[in-house]
Amino acid sequence: MTDGGASLAGRGGNPILGPGFAGLSGWVLAALLLGVSGLLGMALTLVDPVKIGILVVALVGCVFFMRMSLHHPVGTLCAIIFAQVTVPVYIRLPIPGLPSLPPPLLLIAGLSGVLLFRQFLHPTRVRTGRYERFLSTALLLYGAALVLTLPGNEHVYGGSVSMLVKTWVIPTFLFFILLSTIRTPGQLERVHTAILIAAVLSGMLGVHEFITRDNFIATALAPRVTIEEDFFLWLLANSDKSPPYIGGAIYRVYSFFTQPLEYSAFMVMAMPYPVLKFVTATTPGQRLIYGVAGLIIMAGFVVSFSRGPTLALVLVLLFLAIHERRVRPWLLVGLGLAVLALIVAWPFIADQLTERVSGSRNVTLRFRLWENGIITFLENPIRGIGYGSYPNYHAQSIHDHQIGPMYEYPWRHIESVTTVENIYVSLAAETGLLGLGAFFLLLGVYAYIFRKVMRLGDPRIRLLALTSAGATLAFLLSGMTVANIIGYTISILFFGVYIASIGVLSRRLPDHPHPSPAVLAPFVSTRSPRYPRPRPADGTG
Fold first, then answer.
1. Which of 24-38, 377-391, 445-459 bottoms out in mean pLDDT, i.e. has the lowest?
2. Which residues, 6 or more positions from 386, have their beta carbon under 8 angstroms from its beta carbon?
3. Number of neighbouring beta carbons within 10 Å of residue 374
4. How far apart are CA 90 and CA 218, in angstroms?
5. How many other CB atoms sit within 10 Å of the CB of residue 388?
6. Residues 321, 223: Cα–Cα separation, whole Å
7. How many whole angstroms separate alpha carbon 381 and alpha carbon 53?
8. Cβ neighbours for 418, distance < 8 A, ≥ 6 positions apart
9. H runs (alpha helix) in 359-419
10. Distance separating alpha carbons of residues 144 and 526, to the nearest angstrom
11. Would you say 43 and 33 are in contact if contact means Cβ atoms under 8 Å apart?
């Protein structure tokens, strides 16, 4: 599974830690277990046995995770990315002395610690390609721009730092973990397969939720909050979701997410991979598997009733059709099937679909939100008002500039809407030209590397590059009407997986695209007395 692992293991070395460390990881684990056993033995007389049992299970799980991370890092990374999608963020693990954290975040931190531990035991020089360095530098510059624009107001500083950690620090950790763990296109394909499986499960849960109007995961595990604390989480966890209860608005599915729009944006991001695998499949079995997966994802997306992401999906499919000819006939077939499915399902979704298409309140709201964001940017064009601090300025700015009327639900106030619903206007308002320019620099570097990778001609690399670009385009296009730059899960996937994927694929590019000029030998005259002119063998001349 690991490149070169068999040869190292055959020589008595550890395929992860390197030669000479064959039994070191085993000794470390044995010492860890011995120490834990001693501590537990002392604690048994002082602590409740039930808590001891929970602690034992947690410690055994930690040991298992550490060993898996050392010997199967690619599989561990795939499991973490899968959990990132399928474990809702409202599920938190209580940690004594620390804030409750989502389990996938703990797994990312654990894998980072194991990789650092491996580097400490067996220091190796990390060799990165020319284009990987370009991409990493652009991502770090974007993060530096966000840090420089953090607000100085102590009342909003904590929230801004929290937003920075959620939308840049954690995704950047995953970015470098993926670059250091994934070595081959085959391993990268396994990562996208993990996302595909998560998207299929998400689509199935979304369809079930739409039919039953109940998200059984949220009903059982989501915390109970008031409508003032978190409207979407309140709506998600509330058992009565009939249209009259929510002011006449149709019910929007959540699946594993806490925002319907984040769910729909993720489903669009996950769509390119099954589409490309379907059209390039070489056997009927492969085509059946990826075709069914794509249909489930599409069904889960349709019941989200999201207009902006729908336009993003259409444009992404057109993008794939432009770069891959085999997508074009199937795109026409899919269009015909979509029309047929709409006709069949019309009696069941007519009211909801008509309301979403004809409803203008939500669209009008976005125009007013964008207007307020642009005004905020024009008043603070260089550094903005501070990354993550827009919710604290939103309501006052609306009243100061008399923007409106604005409404989304008849009984709600505009102060409850605290996003710009556009990632570009949001970045401009909060970080000014500094943050917006750094973001577009990152996108420019990504597009430059993508163009280079597409010229390689390798079908597998081409498929993975189009998967990455399609998901990236989906994120950027859906961000025209969704504030997905602040979405926890899709931000992690955008920066940590899809942007990083093009860095992995760029390793097939030469580090020096222009060869060095040839070094010519010094000219030596043949007329020199030291170097007499050679004479013919017959003695003439």
1. 24-38
2. 149, 150, 151, 152, 153, 156, 160, 430
3. 15
4. 9
5. 27
6. 43
7. 57
8. 390, 391, 394
9. 361-379, 390-401
10. 62
11. no
**Could you give the dihedral angle defined by the CA atoms of residues 215, 218, 219 and 223, in that order, rounded to the nearest 10 degrees?**
-160
pLDDT tens-digit profile of 89-128?
888 877 766 677 888 888 888 888 888 877 777 777 767 7
Whole-angstrom Cα distance, residue 436 to residue 429? 9
Torsions phi, psi for 114 (to 5 deg): -65, -40
At residue 18, what are phi and psi to the nearest 5 degrees?
100, 175
User: What's the angle, vertex CA 323, arms to CA 321 and CA 327, rounded to 5?
Assistant: 35
How far is CA 461 from its chain centroid? 20
How many CB atoms neighbour CB 476 within 10 A?
17
CA 453 to CA 455: how far, in whole Å? 5
Considering the chain, what is the average pLDDT of its residues?
78
Nearest C-alpha neighbor of 306 from the set 255, 343, 369: 255
Per-residue pLDDT tens over the stretch 333-367: 878 877 787 777 667 666 666 655 555 455 567 77
Q: Sign of dihedral through CA atoms 458, 459, 461, 467?
A: positive
Q: Tell me the DSSP string of 256-295.
A: TSS-HHHHHHHHHHHSHHHHHHHHT-SSHHHHHHHHHHHH
Q: Which two tokens stand for residue 442?
A: 């990152």
298/292 Cα distance (integer angstroms): 10
Give the angle 443-276-294 at the CA atoms, nearest 5°: 105
439 vs 433: CA distance, rounded Å: 10
Q: Whole-angstrom Cα distance, residue 426 to residue 387?
A: 9
Residue 280 burial (10 A CB sphere; 0-12, 13-18, 19+): middle
The angle subtended at Cα 538 by Cα 537 and Cα 541, nearest 5°, is 90
In DSSP terms, 101 is beta-bridged to 93
In this structure, which amino acid lies at residue 278? Answer: F
**Residue type for 329, please?**
P
Phi, psi angles (nearest 5°) of residue 252: -110, 135
Contacts of 397 (CB under 8 A, 6+ apart): 372, 375, 376, 403
Q: What is the mean pLDDT of residues 278-285?
A: 91
Written as six digits, the tokens of 349 are 């979704």
Say which DSSP state 2 is in: -
Read off the amino acid at residue 464.
L
Q: How many residues are listed for the chain in this entry? A: 541
Q: CB under 8 Å to 92, separation ≥6 — which residues?
A: 100, 101, 102
Q: How confident is the model over 118-155, as pLDDT tens digits?
A: 777 777 776 777 899 999 999 999 999 999 988 876 66
Number of H helices, E strands in the chain: 22, 2
Three-state SS at 303? coil
- The whole-model pTM stands at 0.80
- Residue 308's closest CA among 371, 247, 363, 369? 363
- Dig out the tokens for 11 from the structure: 């020589």
What is the rounded CA–CA span in Å between residue 126 and residue 50?
Answer: 45
